[in-house]
């Protein structure tokens, strides 16, 4: 995985943008999830440009830096356990699974497992009560998020990527 200096600089800019979204999520409390989603899109761009292994390393770097730089350590758990790694999970699922129905089912299984883990981890720090309508709402929001993520990645590949000259 030897990278040219242009690629390293590009990854550095992407990591800086990723961290900007993560830090802003602590500063602008009302848009935390949207900013985490934007940070996760950057991980998706790295996966497209440099592959899955580089994407995984980028994700780890973004988690470590995000944890060190963010003001709210509890909120970063959401990025670490779902948003950041979802780019990797989505890439692997869409690469391996042929059936669209199975793909959606596997994504929802992953989402609900990560949601359960986040619930128990966050519950150690703060008290939360969940209701059935909250869980249903989150399922719908996940569908919208996955769809929007796909639209962004397709837009990046067709419109933005051709304009970026890496070589």
In short:
The protein contains six helices and no strands. By secondary structure, it is mainly α. The two termini are 16 Å apart.
What would your notes on this structure say?
The protein has 167 residues and is an all-alpha fold. It has one domain. It has helices at 5-27, 32-50, 52-69, 76-96, 100-123, 132-160. Helix 1 (5-27) runs antiparallel to helix 2 (32-50) and helix 2 packs across helix 6. It is globular. The two termini are 16 Å apart.
Tally of structural domains: 1
Q: Report the total helices.
A: 6
How would the global form be characterised? globular
Oligomer: single chain
Rg, Cα atoms, Å: 16 Å
Per-chain topology:
Elements: H1 5-27, H2 32-50, H3 52-69, H4 76-96, H5 100-123, H6 132-160
Helix pairs in contact: 1-2, 1-3, 2-3, 2-4, 2-6, 3-4, 4-5
Spell out the key features of this protein.
167 residues; mainly alpha; 6 helices; 0% strand
């Amino acid at each position: 995985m030897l990278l040219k200096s242009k690629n390293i600089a590009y990854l550095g800019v992407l990591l800086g943008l990723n961290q900007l979204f993560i830090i802003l999520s602590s500063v602008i409390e009302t848009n935390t999830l949207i900013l985490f989603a934007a940070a996760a899109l950057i991980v998706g761009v790295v996966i497209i440009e440099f592959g899955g292994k580089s994407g995984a390393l980028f994700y780890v770097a973004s988690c470590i830096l995000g944890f060190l730089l963010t003001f709210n350590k509890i909120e970063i758990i959401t990025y670490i356990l779902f948003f950041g790694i979802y780019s990797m999970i989505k890439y692997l699922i869409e690469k391996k699974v042929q059936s669209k129905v199975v793909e959606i089912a596997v994504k929802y299984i992953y989402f609900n497992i990560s949601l359960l883990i986040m619930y128990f981890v966050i519950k150690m720090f703060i008290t939360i009560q969940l209701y059935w309508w909250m869980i249903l709402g989150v399922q719908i929001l996940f569908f919208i998020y996955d769809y929007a993520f796909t639209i962004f990645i397709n837009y990046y590949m067709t419109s933005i990527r051709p304009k970026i000259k890496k070589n």
